[in-house]
Design goal:
- The chain has about 300 residues and is of the alpha/beta class.
- The protein contains 13 helices and 14 strands.
- It has a 7-stranded mixed beta sheet, sandwiched between helices.
- β6, α8 and β7 form a beta-alpha-beta unit.
Length: about 300
């Protein structure tokens, strides 16, 4: 059996920008002295005149992006999630969200899997922050195929978009030949009848593995990939919840305000269902190897399996 291909979605982001550069002449890429880490350097090499290094001034970069969007360009403001959603929140809210400008925010190094950089850089709050901004689309792709498709969808969408990418290489679970990305539409990855596992980002592949383990124990798990946190696919979520009667959300983000919160809000209003939220439990991260941290914080397939089985 051949080994599953793995690639970090931040790599996918840089490659997609370079790939779509010729097709979209108004595409401009900004970074905050992190072109190597965010992989926007790939675009810079291909289109040097359309890449702007704003220096270590993320808040100012959002203002520059807003100005470019007002002038008809399609700017992708790129930096770590902690700086894009955290440090520059006021500028994203007031300069991008309030006037509803066509700015795309490419936030890399999100979640606990940032690893050795530790709690100060492990942004587990960005999905919550960004989905509170009126009109902001929030996307968290699961793999290389989905990340590239998400960049294309953001380019074609008129309005602000927050895209979340990771540092850690993750399995490619989607087939590029058949994969179709649709903003606001979740994807049924596996059918089941006993429990619905709704996952996002790198947790989609982990949840699929957990579902296989549960199947061996006689528990049929349905797995849904929610790549668009906002707008959420309420129709798919409620239909699956009514079918199985139990819902588990899995995310590499705080259980407060992210995917779990979004799903809980929908179900509370439309289809009250017994729920279990799996994510970072109201705590800060710590420094360590990414895979070890994912296991320690209970976000790996074995931990998901154990939590769901224990819940039953």
């Amino acid at each position: 059996m051949s080994e599953v291909k793995k690639i970090a979605t931040r790599e996918s982001y840089g490659n997609a920008l370079a790939e779509f550069g010729a097709e979209y002449p108004d595409l401009v890429v900004l970074d905050a002295d992190l072109a190597g880490a965010t992989k926007t350097g790939v675009f810079k090499k291909a289109f040097p005149d359309r890449h702007i290094d704003c220096g270590i001034a993320e808040s100012n970069m959002m203002g520059v992006a807003a100005g470019l969007a007002a002038a008809g360009k399609i700017p992708f403001a790129s930096t770590f999630a902690m700086f894009a959603a955290g440090r520059a929140f006021e500028q994203v809210r007031n300069s991008v969200g309030y006037p509803h400008l066509n700015v795309k925010i490419g936030a890399t190094h999100a979640g606990i899997s940032v690893g050795e950089d530790g709690a100060s850089h492990q942004c587990n709050e960005d999905l919550a922050l960004m989905r509170t901004i009126p009109g902001m689309v929030v996307i968290n792709p699961a793999d290389d195929v989905e990340a590239k498709a998400a960049v294309k969808a953001a380019l074609d969408y008129e309005g602000p978009v927050y895209l979340r990418f990771g540092r850690l290489a993750v399995p490619v679970i989607n087939d590029p030949a058949s994969y179709k990305f649709e903003l606001g539409k979740g994807i049924l990855m596996r059918e089941g009848k006993d429990v619905t596992i709704i996952a996002t980002g790198l947790e989609v592949s982990e949840s699929l593995e957990a579902a296989k383990m549960l199947e061996a124990d006689g528990i049929s798990a349905e797995v849904i990939n929610i790549h668009t946190i906002k707008p959420l696919d309420a129709e798919l979520v409620t239909a699956s919840a009514k079918k199985t009667g139990k819902v588990v959300t899995v995310e590499e983000h705080s259980i407060i305000g992210g995917l779990g919160g979004a799903v809980a809000e929908v179900l509370a209003e439309q289809a009250p269902t017994k729920m279990l939220r799996i994510g970072v439990n109201d705590t800060f991260g710590e420094s360590g190897p990414a895979k070890a941290l994912i296991e320690k914080y209970g976000l790996d397939a074995k931990s998901i399996y154990a939590k769901v089985k224990g819940w039953f």
